[in-house]
Amino acid sequence: MAAGYGSVRRFNAHCLSVYGLSPTALRNAPVGKQGEIELAIPYRDPYDF
Q1: How many CB atoms neighbour CB 32 within 10 A?
Q2: What Cα–Cα distance (Å) separates residue 17 from each residue in 7, 10, 12, 14?
Q3: 12 contacts: CB under 8 Å, gap ≥ 6
Q4: Contacts of 39 by beta carbon, 8 Å cutoff, 6+ apart
Q5: How far is residue 27 from each of residues 12, 20, 46, measured CA to CA in Å?
Q6: Alpha helix ranges (H) inside the chain
């Protein structure tokens, strides 16, 4: 996969652990404005200085 996951299964499991929803449920979730979604993307610094 282009996102760096070795398999679709791992990507789906990560979405479920981070957002509490599967990718399908995220796509089907109601949105505030037509065609917009808001995602909180966690970030971890690459190095521990």
Answers
A1: 7
A2: 16, 10, 9, 5
A3: 22, 23
A4: 19
A5: 13, 13, 29
A6: 8-19, 23-28
Closest by CA to 27, choosing from 42, 37, 18, 40, is: 37
Tokens matching residue 19: 């957002």
Chain segment 1-49, per-residue pLDDT in tens:
567 888 999 999 988 998 888 989 988 877 666 777 777 787 777 876 6
pTM over 0.70: no
Burial of 6 (0-12, 13-18, 19+ CB in 10 A): exposed
